[in-house]
Specification:
three-stranded antiparallel sheet; globular; Trp_RNA-bd_attenuator-like_dom; twelve-stranded antiparallel sheet; about 230 residues
Length: about 230
């Protein structure tokens, strides 16, 4: 291999999921250890891996997906190495140990198929967002990969008594045991031409973490389903 490219070659497998650089996920696939991944996220693979978009077991949940257009999920199975990415977004790998994570659907890249998951209404937010906000909760013991538009910050909400406030457009994920409520405010950006009127933040309190990305792109917003 050309020495200038050798530094980008795959590293030995050390875990079920791991990063290859900041923006690519490497998954060690084995028969019987299926994976759910965002449709269209596959960028390369080695070995024999099959893909099934919107498998029958997910069709009921598909009707509840955040976009209202069906679950953008494919089932991956087989043996080999699978590489996933999402338009150059940073990839964060989480190994759940009998735990749960609530994730913005647009930031969910892949997760072990044996994990429990479903679309959940974000409690305490309905009066601030019409019919309410919906997220994807993943629970159990296994691997999850999420994306962030830039390097995220992980805030430990249990470090003090103060609440943690997050712009919904920048929210990636949080511990589902946290208490959530909304707070209206006048968004300062409305004074410099980026919007107008009231905005709201999400306030988190309790023991757990909140993952925030350095982006307020409205395409990453928690989706509202009416």
């Amino acid at each position: 291999m050309n020495q200038q490219l050798a530094g980008y070659a795959p590293t030995p497998v050390t875990a079920r999921m791991e990063n290859h650089g900041r923006s690519m996920l490497k998954v060690a696939m084995q028969t019987g250890q299926d994976l759910f991944a965002r449709t269209g996220s596959m960028v390369a693979y080695e070995g024999f891996i099959q893909y099934e978009p919107n498998p029958p077991a997910l069709r009921q949940m598909a009707s509840q997906w955040l976009t209202g257009e069906g679950a953008p999920v494919m089932k991956c199975s087989g043996d080999g190495l699978l590489y996933l990415a999402d338009y150059g977004a940073d990839v964060v790998v989480v190994n759940l140990d009998n735990d749960a994570l609530s994730v913005n659907g647009t930031n969910l890249l892949a997760f072990d198929a044996h994990l429990q998951w479903g679309v959940e209404r974000v409690k305490g937010m309905a009066k601030f967002a019409g019919q309410g906000l919906f997220n994807v909760q993943v629970a159990g013991t296994g691997w999850v990969a999420i994306t962030s538009r830039g390097t995220p910050i992980v805030v430990d909400c249990g470090r003090g008594e103060d609440e943690t406030y997050v712009d919904p457009d920048a929210l990636v994920a949080w511990s589902p045991n946290l208490k959530v409520k909304g707070k209206r405010s006048f968004k300062a950006s409305s004074m410099i031409g980026r919007g107008s009127g009231e905005a709201y933040q999400m306030a988190f309190s309790g023991q757990g973490i909140v993952v925030v990305q350095p982006s307020e792109d409205s395409t990453d917003r928690l989706r509202t389903r009416g």
